[in-house]
Write a structure and sequence with these properties.
Number of helices: 45
Structural class: alpha+beta
Shape: flat
Strand content: 5-15%
Largest sheet: 6 strands, mixed
Strand order of the largest sheet: 7-6-5-8-9-10
Distance between the termini: 100 Å
Helix content: 40-55%
């Protein structure tokens, strides 16, 4: 453990000379340190305290924070389908191991689902439906409010989509209610995924709820899916085991201008207006007797710009989003502190040549530009946020001002391909020997013509090599040599993504710049960068012709003149040239890649033949291809390339595997992308027979589909159906088929005259339908599928791509490639026909790894159709079962309800136990006076059964049943059902019929005994029941009169 991480650091910082009006940088209650309008002159030294990032040893028995509660809310909606596995893997690796304390995990799509008290996600957690972000935020808010723990971490992972809410509430309604409860410390870690996630939601959630470390980044953003792992790793680095708050004996400012604080988190900065000499000795409350480890140091530009100011910006933005006071004059103090520190660095450089000072001087320009950009972005966010109509621009601004970017693959690339100064020195010695051996031949080469040189600097690689002072350049440092030596070639605009540094064969070239800048050099790009001429510092690109986007370039792919290729070959194959080619193409001076030049030439070649087919190719394109070919052929004599080419021609199955299962010349070979075999076969086309060309075309197409298809079908439930039976999969088609086969299917279900007679409840009907017709679909769909209906979906095939495994290759590129190597058109059409493509697709779906595909013989077309037919039957059987079951259930349910309502529209008439027993026995029900109350649940007040139907026309009349309430549900669901009709009729039996009907429409007696109170019916709804209500009243009235007579007789 670094002891420096456990020490307190006190830095002295000075303001710029001259009067500095600090304005509103304090509150009146803070005394006279920052009173409004106060102008301070003279001494301008202030103090910055950096709290250690780890708890110091002398405070190890410090009473740390209470138990931690982790709330994890992950978006599992349909738009997260391809991203979910990436989230799972990164979460398990980086975050889950750091989650101490209690953890409760949730997943949400159209509803929020609790995943329980665990720390890991699984594939089963994925939902895949619509997105209810409002409900997710509400769940978080309620969990925070009811939590017993004082320290809470909130993790939110979402692409920000919101397209469903049962209560029609927008997310803003929940966000504005969010705030940290008193006494609770909350850290918010919100990962936004994709270019379209709503940045404002993300910032507002964090701003309202977060009150933990001030220097936690405002935003974690995975712009692309490939960034998800990196961003989750960065989140994990912000997690400490226990949030620890220290109380100091002196108050300072987390941000100048806000309230003073004495409580501070590990890793934060604290600002004091006084100089270090004016401050009392630093102590932690409760540990006054402990001597703290304190280092006194001078602040650096890097610490100001990359640490302190980022913390201040995060808090200022948080205040702004909360609509709280934002001390914008803090920006003036930031500028004054930066300028004061910059001036001190310059003064020190005149008096001392220490390493630290020299390093700071070297970075003066860098941090001056970085500080200016940071200030501009911060002012924009704080003063003109409404102008950020594009949320992505707002996010970009936030990232630049509050988060230090971290390269996902940086460490991995350096481990694999790192190339430092020591390597350069040995490479220079080797190059010197090679050059001296070839010097005479180099000097005899024709001097390059102007059109062969860089159009900006009028020089080229060969011109430099023919310069008599070339060897003097080898005495320069590595970076001076890289900026000075000319690497001339094609200017290209490409996506130099992180993964291109690992696998250069996957480079995506957007365009190659044409005349008048057909040839330039990497030195020219460096010149543009130094002078900031139309230079984009982020993607390291320049626009060579102002206003012409097609002249934009960010890399140079070196080209060697054909007449110099043989002489220069030893130099081109040297480590020094490989280092320069790596820098010229990948713009990375720290690594070396011996494959990068050949790979870049291959990617440029494919881009060129794609945009300029053989049939209509202008002269300058032919010259470009000649240059690419001549330069690339230099590398075909390299042993590793020669081994791969021989394997590609003699054993193509092994050569097309991502990693061969056999060794060649003692080594396994790799096919990093399909650009590699396509380009090398083009270079060696003279060695191929017509039959070999035809076979290679088929094998390349099959491998392309094999590598791309899994990416598009991994989450498909019915891949064969979508690829071969598009019409069968159509939802309307299935519904039409369901209507057509309705009667056939119903025969499997219905065995009585009416559905009502067979099924007591709707639920019984639905269950029976699902059970009885489950196994009928396979046979019913068999005749629906014939070979005419089974045809590969060529539109889907044309859209296939997988840059990571195939490179920037499209399905249409294989036709262009085949024409390029001389395959006749009839063979091309045959190899790419739908029937042949079907073979490739089936092989890809059944063998998802190249080592399995390439190790098996090609399938016969008859076998392929048999497999397709069988797979589609299986998939459509399941798919049809779901759709048809829903359609059949809907139709059958309507029929059952119609039968039910036609019989149950009458009012159930009261019956005495004797009447019930007599009628029940006639139906064969085993009931008598002795077991009546065991068989029936009887309400003697209104003379109704509570477990049997009393509608005489019902097939289930007086049949006792445990699901009697479900039997009644149909009519009770109707809005016009007269609830409590019998109770009201009984109570008001002395009144007339209209009086009783009035009480029913008032809802009298509805909802008694803690039952649900339903909306009463309208008068016109119960008008048809007037006669039956009259009979009901008469019945209850007679019963009461009889009861009174019996009571009178007893008296």
């Amino acid at each position: 453990m670094d002891e420096d991480e456990e020490a307190f650091h006190i830095y002295t910082v000075e303001e710029e000379e001259g009067e500095q009006e600090l304005g509103k940088l304090g509150n009146a209650k803070d005394g006279n340190e920052y009173q409004k309008g106060n102008k301070r002159t003279g001494e301008k030294r202030h103090t910055l305290l950096k709290i250690p990032s780890r708890l110091p040893k002398e405070l190890c028995n410090f009473n740390e924070a209470d138990q931690v509660f982790n709330i994890v809310m992950a978006d599992t909606s349909g738009s997260m389908e391809k991203r979910w596995p990436l989230v799972i893997n990164a979460w398990q690796e980086y975050v889950a191991p750091k989650l101490n304390g209690r953890t409760r995990m949730y997943a949400f799509d159209y509803q929020v689902r609790s995943l329980g008290c665990r720390k890991h996600f699984t594939n089963k957690d994925y939902g895949g439906y619509a997105t209810d972000l409002t409900a997710a935020l509400e769940t978080i808010r309620l969990e925070v409010e009811k939590s017993l723990e004082a320290n809470i971490r909130v993790f939110i992972i979402t692409d920000g989509g919101h397209n469903y809410n049962s209560n029609y509430k927008e997310p803003e309604t929940e966000i504005i209610q969010m705030k940290p409860p008193d006494g609770k410390v909350i850290g918010v870690y919100l990962l936004g995924i994709g270019l379209e996630f709503p940045v404002n939601y993300s910032i507002d959630i964090r701003s309202r709820l977060h009150n933990w470390k001030a220097n936690v980044p405002t935003l974690f953003w995975a712009k692309e899916d490939s960034d998800i792992e990196d961003q989750i790793r960065i989140i994990s680095e912000e997690i400490v085991e226990k949030p620890t708050t220290l109380k100091l004996n002196v108050e300072g400012y987390i941000v100048p201008g806000l309230d003073k604080v004495s409580f501070i988190q590990l890793g934060e900065w604290l600002y004091f207006p006084q100089s270090p000499e004016e401050l009392p000795m630093l102590q932690v409350e409760g540990h006054e007797e402990k001597s703290l480890t304190i280092h006194y140091r001078d602040i650096t530009l890097r610490q100001l710009v990359d640490e302190l100011f980022l913390q201040w910006n995060s808090v200022l933005i948080q205040q702004h989003r909360r609509k709280a006071t934002v001390p914008t004059e803090t920006l003036s103090l930031m500028r004054s502190l930066f300028n004061g520190t910059l001036k001190k660095v310059k003064e020190d450089s005149c008096n001392t040549k220490s390493l630290k000072t020299r390093l700071q001087v070297k970075h003066q320009k860098t941090y001056s530009l970085k500080f200016s950009a940071l200030m501009n972005q911060t002012k924009n966010i704080l003063t003109i946020t409404h102008k950020f109509t594009d949320e992505i621009k707002l996010a970009e601004a936030l990232l630049k001002t509050t988060v230090t970017p971290k390269n996902k693959y940086a460490q991995k690339v350096l481990m694999m391909k790192g190339h430092g100064q020591n390597n350069f020195e040995s490479d220079a010695k080797e190059f010197r020997k090679l050059y001296k051996a070839a010097e005479d031949q180099i000097m005899k080469l024709p001097t390059p013509q102007l059109e062969e040189c860089c159009r900006i600097l009028a020089t080229s690689t060969l011109v430099d090599l023919q310069d008599p002072y070339i060897l003097l350049m080898l005495d320069e440092s590595k970076y001076d040599f890289m900026k000075t030596f000319t690497m001339s070639g094609m200017p290209v605009y490409a996506s130099i993504k992180d993964f291109s540094h690992i696998n250069p064969w996957t480079m995506i070239i957007h365009h190659i710049v044409g005349a008048p800048y057909a040839i330039i050099s990497q030195s020219a790009i460096e010149l543009y960068a130094d002078q900031a001429i139309q230079f984009d510092s982020e993607e390291k690109s320049v626009i060579l012709t102002k206003g012409n986007i097609e002249s934009k370039c960010n890399i140079v792919i070196p080209i060697i003149p054909a007449n110099a290729a043989e002489v220069l070959q030893p130099l081109i194959c040297s480590n020094l040239y490989a280092m320069m080619a790596t820098f010229s193409i990948l713009r990375n001076p720290h690594i070396i890649d011996h494959d990068i030049h050949l790979a870049a030439l291959g990617c440029a070649w494919l881009t060129t033949i794609r945009t300029h087919p053989l049939c209509k190719r202008p002269q300058y394109i032919r010259e470009r291809l000649d240059n690419i070919t001549a330069t690339a052929k230099i590398y075909t004599k390299r042993s590793s390339v020669k081994t791969y080419v021989n394997a590609l021609i003699d054993n193509p199955n092994q050569a097309l595997m991502t990693l061969s299962t056999q060794t060649f010349e003692g080594h396994y070979i790799m096919c990093e992308s399909l650009v590699k075999p396509m380009f090398l076969l083009y270079l060696m086309k003279d060695r191929l027979t017509d039959l070999q060309k035809e076979q290679m075309l088929k094998m390349l197409l099959a491998e392309f589909i094999g590598r791309t298809l899994p990416l598009h079908t991994n989450k498909m439930a019915t891949p064969f159906t979508k690829l071969f039976a598009k019409n069968v999969y159509d939802q309307n088609e299935k519904k039409t088929w369901a209507k057509k086969n309705h009667q056939v299917l119903m025969k499997q279900v219905k065995n009585c005259k009416t559905l009502l007679a067979q099924f007591y409840t709707v639920e019984e009907l639905e269950t029976t339908i699902k059970k009885e017709i489950k196994d009928t679909f396979y046979s019913l769909t068999e005749n629906h599928l014939d070979d005419d209906n089974l045809c590969v979906n060529m539109t889907m095939i044309q859209k296939l791509s997988n840059v990571g495994k195939c490179g920037n290759v499209r399905a249409s590129d294989f036709k262009v490639w085949a024409e390029e190597i001389g395959v006749i058109s009839t063979i091309i059409r045959k190899a790419a026909s739908p029937k042949q493509i079907a073979v490739y697709v089936v092989e890809a779906l059944q063998n998802r790894h190249s080592r399995y595909r390439e190790s098996k013989a090609a399938m016969a077309k008859a076998d392929v159709m048999s497999i397709i037919r069988e797979k589609v039957k299986q998939e459509t059987s399941c798919s049809y079962r779901i759709t048809v079951t829903e359609e059949l259930t809907s139709r059958a349910t309507r029929q059952w309800e119609e039968e039910y309502m036609s019989i149950h529209k009458a009012v159930a008439m009261p019956m005495t136990p004797a009447e019930i027993i007599r009628n029940a026995q006639e139906k064969g029900i085993q009931v008598d006076d002795n077991n009546f109350h065991l068989v029936y649940r009887y309400n003697d007040k209104v003379e109704l059964l509570r477990n049997a139907c009393q509608i005489s026309g019902c097939p289930h009349f007086l049949v006792p049943h445990r699901n009697f309430n479900q039997h009644l549900t149909v009519e009770r669901r109707m809005g016009n059902f007269p609830h409590a009709l019998h109770l009201v009729s009984k109570k008001f039996c002395t009144e007339d019929t209209r009086a009783v009907m009035r009480e029913v429409t008032k809802g009298t007696l509805s909802g008694t005994q803690n039952r649900t109170r339903h909306s009463p019916p309208d008068t016109q709804d119960i008008k048809p029941l007037e006669k039956e209500i009259s009979n009901l009243i008469h019945h209850y009235k007679n019963n009461e009169e009889k009861l009174k007579e019996i009571e009178a007789d007893n008296r």
